[in-house]
Amino acid sequence: MPQGALHEREGIVQDRPGLRLHAMQIEASNKTAAAAGAWTSFGLLPFEDWLAQNHIESVLAYNLLWASAAMVFFILPAYFFVLGRSSEPFSRTWLINPADRARYLVIAKRLFVWFISAGVVGSLWSLVLLLMTN
């Protein structure tokens, strides 16, 4: 193997001989879903307040800011920490297949944990932000 070449084998990325970097292995669980819900609330509530205080006149800039915030605080956490990278698409007959039903139930529970966590943390965080501004 030529020196400086990157290769990935069994979760280990090696850039040069003697240097071993482990590839990030993220497993979605109820705990990561709860953390993602908290991250969504902690990030989007202050962003929305900041956006309300700073009047952005350009529609393009406004939309790009919202898209960036949605990507960082909503879409990426949902993909990595709630759905999981190893999630496969469901078949059309997922309701009939017990294995697909079980997978669907696990993901539905994580989505529920994510929404409840975002709601609880968002409610508390908005109260804290309200008290800090007054």
Characterization of the model:
The chain contains three helices and three strands. The mean pLDDT is 83. α1 (30-53) packs antiparallel against α2 and α1 packs parallel to α3 (98-133). A hairpin with a 2-residue loop joins β1 and β2. It has helices at residues 30-53, 59-83, 98-133, and strands at residues 7-9, 12-14, 20-22. It has a three-stranded antiparallel beta sheet, with no helix packed on it. The protein has 134 residues and is mainly α.
- Uncertain ranges: none
Q: How would you characterize the largest beta sheet? A: 3 strands, antiparallel
**Which secondary-structure class do the elements indicate?**
mainly alpha
Biggest sheet: strand arrangement: 1-2-3
User: What is the helix content?
Assistant: 55-70%
How large is the count of helical segments? 3
The number of E-state strands comes to 3
Can you write the helix and strand succession as a string? EEEHHH
Topology record:
Elements: E1 7-9, E2 12-14, E3 20-22, H1 30-53, H2 59-83, H3 98-133
Antiparallel strand pairs: 1-2, 2-3
Helix pairs in contact: 1-2, 1-3
Concise description?
The chain has 134 residues and is mainly alpha-helical. It is 63% helix and 7% strand. The chain has helices at residues 30-53, 59-83, 98-133, and strands at residues 7-9, 12-14, 20-22.
State the main characteristics.
mainly alpha; 3-stranded antiparallel sheet; 3 helices; 63% helix; elongated; 134 residues; 3 strands
